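Complex record, two chains
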Amino acid sequence: MKPVQAPAIELVGVERTYAAGEADEVRALRGVDLAVGSGEFVSLEGPSGCGKTTLLNLIGLLDAPTVGEVRWDGRSVGRRTDRERSRLRLEGVGFIFQRFYLLPSLTARENVELPMRTRGVERAERQRRASELLSEVGLTGRERAYPHQLSGGEEQRVAVARALANQPGLLLADEPTGELDRVNTEGILTLLEQVRKERNATLLLVTHNPSVSRRAHRHLTLEDGRVTSDLREP
Amino acid sequence: MIGRGGGRRLRHARLQAILAVAAIATAMALPVVLVSVGGGVSSHELASLQNAGYQVVVSAGGLHGIAHAHSLAQRILGLPSVAAASPVLSVPIDAFPSGAGTTPVLAEGIIAGEFGPTLGPAESGLFPLPLPLGDPTDQIHYDNGSYAGAATYDVMVSSPFAQALHVTTGDRLPLGPTSNSTDRVVYQVTGTFGVPPTALGPTGAFAVLLPLSDLQVMTGFASEPAAPVTDAADTVEVAVVPSATTEPGVINSVRDQIQALVPFYGVSSLSQEAQQLESASAVLTGFYLALSSVGLTVGLVFLALVLVRRVESERRSIGIRRAIGQPGRSIAAALIGDGVLLAASGALIGLLAGYLMVEGLATWATSTVQEAAQLAIFVPLTLAELAAGVIGLSVLAGAWASRAALRIDLAEALR
């Protein structure tokens, strides 16, 4: 299984409205134009409810824009069929969530194997690779543990390993350290940076934490569904 | 929903799964019992018809409604291709065996020479042939309807009767139409006969066989006004010549000729009766299945609800899988697979439970139910069709749950 080249992301006039036309209509994103190059490390900041997660979901094809286009490498992908978007997610995107979202009925290794199994990787290969990934995130010997037997930091490391399983070019992390202590936060961020560098992956990370944000090379700030600031590190 | 993960989820939802399987199993067991027992009884009756030694039967509305049975038998015997015409009168009477008090028995009045040729292969071995009843044509006592001739006072008794009441050939056996001892007539036992294995039929284990005219006189069915008709019988069973027993055209022709003789009686060939029985059996099977479909529908709705409940409780897991890239159709297929697995388990357990219930009824139920259960037949094709129907419908239940799964908003599920 070859690593997938990180796509260049482009959002053109993207709006996302929930319950459009109804009394309780919510405009989560309003005319967002954005371009993220391959291999960039971007932090998304802003107050709660400003549209950070919505933006991440649109880029990761978990959601479709109400108006506008989401492009990967210049190709419009935002409104493709469910099947095509599933395939693009499977091959190209690794998600890391704040609450880890491991499947409680699977062991750590099985959680890591899941994307590979969905992709049809042979059992021996995926077992080997899952063990390798768990070793990379420092969980050797914990392969057979179920999520409820793991600490928060360990769970997030399994989630990172799962996100890397299909060697995606795009890593989307929604407050990945929000529920971790300082030591575990450092560990996870170091790991993500290392992976990004080694694989030239694009990393978009939603955070409220300035110390986490500082590690990124580009800082996007959203307010009320709009990108209000786009700062690049020199 | 997939592989080992699916197996674990099934275990996690163990109680729900057990309830769904139990509902389907219960719903499945009912048609298994009904169809197997009902089909078995029908098949038995059909086999009895097909194995009968006669091919046409004359019957009348009401009890003992055929009049002039002796002369009707003679007229039927005169038709081409007819080998035997056997009038039969069945009347419950009382026997007074020595030292045993009054014993109810079923008496069958027959013409000995005609009765033998109408016995089927399964029955003929139960009777000594020719029957040891004097006056094989029953014409001496009947004497052209005068009943003034000499009666033989011969009687044959069934083996269970003989054994239970210690009656043997040569014994004297008083018989009477009622328990009133003044009406009794003393007969001589000239032989015994076996009782064919019956189920749900009217043949009693305690039975006697005697000349038709004797029974008519004894019970008052010889002449009006005591009897509703003169020279009464219940049926006349007609056997065609051996070369024509497999010729439907000849049998139908005989039937039509008899019908022309007695347009006011019912005349039917056994093949007709078999067809009617088969039709009735098919209707009954349909009825059983329709009745069972209520239970099966409830079971399948329950299954669908269990699957939908599972979707609800696994919204996040489904969202995670979708986020990872598992296609919607794969989620749907897994849910349908779960439904099929549960339904197949329920169907299998239901089949087994139905079989065990029938076996239990055949062993421990009261007599009539027990006899019916003992006749049960399990037709693999029918049972397989039933199971396949349940499993097929479970796909719909799975599809319903899949629809709910595919409508999950990923962003919402992962919030």
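Note: Strands of chain B lie at 56-59, 82-95, 103-110, 154-158, 172-176, 185-193, 207-211, 235-240, 266-269.
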